[in-house]
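call fold target=tRNA ligase 1
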Amino acid sequence: MEEPSKGTYAKDWVLWEKQLREVLFRNADYLASIQVLFEIAVDQVLEQLKRIMKGEYVTPISSEKSKFGTIVFAAIDVPVADLHNLLSNISEENNPKVKTFIENNNLQKAHITLAHKRSHGVTAVANYGRFVNQKVPVDVTALLLSDKLAALEAQPGSIDGQKITSKNEWPHLTLWTAQGIPPKEANTLPELVLQGKAKHIEFNPPFTITGVLQFH
């Protein structure tokens, strides 16, 4: 194998070497500064290694991981004002029981849970991350009422052609629970309907509202 400075590429090599020397010379100060920073970096790495060996080093938690660690569930948040309008329309058109319910209950906030960390796992919740802060159309198909619970049956629509599917077996928006009854008990409403212990008021055609997908 020919040496670069001899043979076919001898003239080219001389030119390349000259150009390289000129570039290095022009940037001598910068290269020197990099070398100093590199030496400092090496010292810092060695110091960290010493701390690890002594058991003194704690892996830092990134702000993103820390933030996600506080997230419990993914949901579609629905404006309360829109819900009040929806329920008012329902009461006027369909059922006086709905009107009585509205008059006796003051809804403060509302959401449709898509996935809960405890029930569905961290990954299931995280999978909704790319849709956060985006609007989602929701079809409200029915109102389920018992003496202790009330919820709207809801079917989320799509975002940019991607269907938003709830991990809950029965997607719904909890409107009210009696004192001492946890919101998760609203999941039992379909079964209570079958047992004759709750009312099922179907909306045909469904009402459509718009919410925003959020982490909580």
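return ok
The first helix runs from residue 10 to 26. Residues 61-66 have pLDDT under 50 and may be disordered.
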